Amino acid sequence: MKQNTPGELCRNCDGHASVAITLGGRDHNGHLRTITAHCFTCHGTGTRRSTRRPHWTVTA
Hints:
0% of the residues lie in helices and 27% in strands. The protein has one domain. The protein has strands at 18-26, 32-38. It starts with 17 loop residues before the first strand and ends in a 22-residue tail after the last strand. By secondary structure, the chain is mainly beta. A hairpin with a 5-residue loop joins strand 1 (18-26) and strand 2. The chain is built from no helices and two strands. It has a two-stranded antiparallel ribbon.
C-alpha cells in the first residue's frame, strides 16, 4: 500500500478523515449509538489533490 507523504495529507483533518461521534446512550440491544462524520475538504479520503502544475519542457 502506498504511504502518504506529508504533502499529500489533507490539511484540514491531517489524514484522519472519518470519525465516529457518540450520540449518548445505548440502543435496546446495548450497543453504543454513533454517527460517522467525514471531512468536508477531502470527502473522507484523508488526502488532497496535488496543486502543482505539470512541468513540460518544449525543445525546438
